[in-house]
Design goal:
It is a single chain. By secondary structure, the chain is an alpha+beta fold. The chain has 3 domains: about 1-75 and about 355-395, no CATH class; about 80-150 and about 280-355, no CATH class; about 160-275, Sandwich (Tick-borne Encephalitis virus Glycoprotein, domain 1). It is about 15% helix and about 45% strand. Strands 7, 8, 11, 12, 27 and 30 form a 6-stranded antiparallel β-sheet that branches. Strands 14, 20, 21, 22 and 23 form a 5-stranded mixed β-sheet that branches. A 5-stranded antiparallel β-sheet has the order 15-16-17-18-19, with no helix packed on it. A hairpin with a 5-residue loop joins β7 (about 95-100) and β8. α1 (about 1-25) runs antiparallel to α2 (about 360-395). The two termini are about 20 Å apart.
Length: about 400
């Protein structure tokens, strides 16, 4: 009967551990990236105690010594992906885990992609401040930083495109307010003036001017109501004040006609576009499906930054949970490193997080089983105790 009390105690201990695992799962039902666990049960050792006087080597003489627990097993089933509206919240649609590194250089892994750029421009975890690691072209782990990318220098103007009608009857006409951006990002305003040449039909003189200063001059030839080859693209050299000379191209090759018309006609020649861009400041950051950082600037330009590193494992037995939504490597031979968009690593979903994979209905079902097991083990102890009390009372009589 004392052995029965011991067996009942192992049941109480085992089911109390099972209750703790269920409590931990349900408590983390809203924890991003949380992976549920289940307690593994096993029967304890046996003995051939020969309690019935038979052969101890035969199975029917074996008696058990109760319940044992062999640890927990994590479920890495993917949780639901939920929109957050924050571009630096990320989820992995696949098997990959984000790679983190703390101040001491310790590397951990997480499915909770809640990140931010800190005051130094380095991408870190919002919860613990660990650096989020990227992977360079050589496969080396590097930090993801905005250093040197807070400003976009833009680019100088190289081509100005025109569209509309150049009047074949007007003696003078002009296109004003042509913006030109130099290498320093400064904007200059030019104008283009056409004038007829006496006794020279289908030919116009052009002057490119900055204020009253002639920057470039030349002739354009027309035929069949269009600029002739050699006049469709006009190269000029322009030297902004305090800057080196820059090459400009005046492009009349598309949608430019040479027709009779007034200079105030709505279809008269205008600037269609110019390809220069002024300086811009950082306006947004986000990661694409392949984990590549896309940096946006106020001047409309975008550039690529570092690429997120991802890790994955072959077996859940190679993973250990260390809290704070992080995991560690238990068997490095079962781990692989790469990037999003490569095989089983999966793709990155920006503006989303993966919520807990806890199945609440399953947890409640397991809770009932744990409770019944605990009650049964408690009843075994109570019954064994009653039997001992009865034995003691028999002796007293």
């Amino acid at each position: 009967m004392l052995e029965s009390i011991y067996v009942g105690m192992t049941g109480l201990l085992g089911y109390s551990r099972g209750l703790r695992v269920i409590a931990n799962n349900t408590a983390n039902i809203n924890t991003p990236g949380f992976k549920s666990s289940s307690l593994q049960f096993a029967d304890m050792f046996y003995t051939g105690g020969n309690l019935s006087g038979g052969n101890a080597s035969q199975n029917y003489d074996q008696v058990g010594f109760g319940l044992n627990t062999t640890g927990t097993a994590m479920s890495f089933k993917q949780g639901e992906l939920r929109q957050t509206g924050n571009d630096l919240d990320m989820a992995v649609d696949g098997q990959g885990l984000f790679v983190l590194q703390d101040a001491e250089g310790k590397t951990t892994y997480t499915r909770a992609g809640q990140f931010k750029f800190d005051d130094t421009g380095v991408l870190v975890s919002r919860s613990g401040g660990e650096k989020v690691m990227g992977m360079d072209a050589s496969g080396n782990m590097v930090e993801i930083t905005l250093a040197g990318q807070m400003l976009n220098q833009g680019k100088p103007t190289s081509t100005i495109k025109f569209s509309g009608n150049i009047s074949s009857t007007a003696t003078r006409q002009s296109v004003d307010a042509l913006p030109v951006i130099d290498a320093a990002g400064m904007t200059h305003t030019l104008s283009l003036k056409f004038s007829a040449i006496e006794n020279t039909p289908n030919t116009l003189k052009y002057d490119v001017m900055e204020g009253t200063t002639v920057v470039a001059t030349g002739r354009m030839l027309f035929g069949q109501n269009r600029p002739l080859p050699g006049s469709t693209v006009v190269p000029i050299s322009y030297t902004p004040a305090g800057q080196p000379a820059m090459s400009l191209t005046l492009d009349f090759s598309t949608d430019v006609n040479f027709l009779a018309g007034a200079t105030d006609d709505p279809k008269t020649l205008t600037m269609a576009s110019q390809d220069g861009v002024g300086p811009g400041t950082l306006s947004g950051t986000a990661f694409d499906g392949n984990g590549v950082l896309r940096i946006s600037y106020s001047n409309g330009q975008t550039t690529k930054g570092a690429r997120l590193a991802l890790a994955r494992f072959d077996s859940p037995d190679a993973v250990g949970s260390i809290g704070n939504n992080q995991f560690e490597i238990l068997n490095k031979n079962a781990w692989h490193f790469g990037s999003a968009g490569e095989g089983a690593f999966g793709t990155v979903r920006a503006g989303q997080i993966e919520i807990s994979n806890v199945d609440l209905s399953q947890e409640f079902s397991d809770l009932v089983i744990m409770q019944r097991g605990y009650q049964a083990s408690s009843q075994v102890i109570s019954t064994a105790n009653d039997m001992l009390q009865e034995l003691f009372s028999m002796k007293s009589k």
